[in-house]
Design brief:
This protein has 148 residues and is of the alpha/beta class. The protein has a single domain, classed as D-tyrosyl-tRNA(Tyr) deacylase (D-tyrosyl-trna(Tyr) Deacylase, Chain: A), CATH 3.50.80.10. The strands form two sheets. Strands 1, 2, 3, 6, 7 and 8 form a six-stranded mixed β-sheet that branches. Strands 4-5 form a two-stranded antiparallel ribbon. The longest helix is centred in the C-terminal third of the chain and has 17 residues. The mean pLDDT is 98.
């Protein structure tokens, strides 16, 4: 699975002019299941994100996790993280999981984050979403379980 993690002061996701997910301090996680991914990758990704120390401690060093700051996660499915841009100018998405698998693994990923003790807000899989965020830092981290 792939994820783009952003440390935020606030973030929200809107569908059809209605806010369906919203957090204050925490992490906005854009997530994509890739072809061949399973629940094991979703679990590993959630565990890694939950423990990721990218929030400042009293000394100003990135040494605290989202749970250490009593933060939350806004998880948004984004199949475009699976883009292949090697050929031409139009990205291909054949490396991303099919929609049924993608939806199942997105749900599993969100549940895995919650099992880590994190408050989780969500986008809506497959919907046209508008995402707002105030990136804190900015701090943006890329993760791909295929690289571990």
């Amino acid at each position: 699975m792939r994820a783009l993690i952003q440390r935020v002061s606030e973030a929200s996701v809107t569908v059809d002019h209605e806010i369906i997910g919203e957090i204050s301090s925490g992490l906005l996680v854009l997530v994509c299941a890739m072809d061949g991914d399973t629940e094991a990758e979703a679990d590993r990704l959630a565990a890694k994100i939950a423990k990721l120390r990218i929030f400042q401690d009293e000394a100003g060093k990135m040494n605290r996790s989202v749970s250490d700051i009593d933060g939350a996660v806004l998880a948004v499915s984004q199949f475009t993280l699976g883009a292949d841009t090697k050929r031409g100018n139009r990205p291909g998405f054949s490396a991303a999981a099919d929609p049924e698998t993608g939806a199942r693994l997105y749900d599993h990923f969100c549940a895995a984050l919650a099992r880590q003790g994190l408050p989780v807000e969500r986008g809506r899989f497959g919907a046209d979403m508008k995402v707002r965020l105030l990136n804190d830092g900015p701090v943006t981290i890329w993760m791909d379980t295929a690289e571990w």
